[in-house]
Amino acid sequence: MQEFIRIRAGAVPLPLANVDTDMIIPAQYMKALTRSGLGKHLFQELRFDRNGAERDDFILNQPQGRKAQIIVADRNFGCGSSREHAVWALTDFGFRCVIAPSFGDIFAGNARKNGLLLIRLPDEACTRLREEIALAQYAPIEVDLAAQQIRLASGETIAFDIDPDDRRILMEGLDDIERSLRHADAIARFEAAI
Fold it and tell me: Measuring CA to CA, which residue among 176, 172, 193 is closest to residue 185?
């Protein structure tokens, strides 16, 4: 898993509440057993019309959205089913961070396991951040996990809190297997004692 210390990247506003995992990646695209290739179906119904043509009015189809790595969403992002494919689709598209007032619990666990940083900020802060991104004409912002700060193009800094264990896992780039392997000696001693 890729380490997350800090990124400076484009951010896009997504002012939709209750974005569920089916909206993130519809079920019919979840046949893949690998994490790659799902990004092309991210937000399928929002990005494309019935004929498969891109919707010009959707932010990810606009120049500033195509290479963005940060989403500033609304409350309850990632609610719904437990599909890990939702996180895979976001990361395969290139997203490294989602900022929102709240997240679906299972989605949050899947995000941590796959290196996607989730930042919780109050509703008002997310609304203002979405407005600031648009006012700054989508200039890159910096998300610094080490300092637990978001730095806007205007120079403003927004502090955020994160669970210390989640922070360590993301900063060290540890997936579940890598975390277990850190205890290989203790596991071997236990097995030898049986």
Answer: 193
User: Do residues 87 and 103 make contact, with C-beta atoms less than 8 angstroms apart?
Assistant: no
142-146-147-149 Cα dihedral, nearest 10 degrees: 40
In the prediction, which pLDDT does 127 show? 97
The Cα 16–Cα 177 span in angstroms is 34
Q: What's the CA gap between 155 and 116, in Å, rounded?
A: 25
From the options 3.20.20.100, 3.40.50.10680, 3.10.20.90, 3.20.19.10, give the CATH code of 6-193: 3.20.19.10
SS3 assignment, position 169:
helix
User: Which tokens is 155 given?
Assistant: 């120079």
Sign of CA dihedral 155, 63, 59, 1: negative
pTM of the model: 0.91
- Splitting the chain (194 residues) into consecutive groups of 10 residues, what average pLDDT does each group show? 95 97 92 84 96 96 95 97 92 98 96 96 97 94 98 95 95 78 73 82
The domain locations on the chain are: 6-193
Contacting residues for 123 by C-beta, under 8 A, at least 6 apart:
74, 75, 101
Question: Do 35 and 91 form a contact (C-beta atoms < 8 A)?
Answer: yes
What are residue 71's DSSP bridge partners?
Answer: 12, 98
Per the CB < 8 A criterion, the answer to whether 42 and 90 are in contact is: yes
Residue 23 has phi, psi (to 5 degrees) of -70, -35
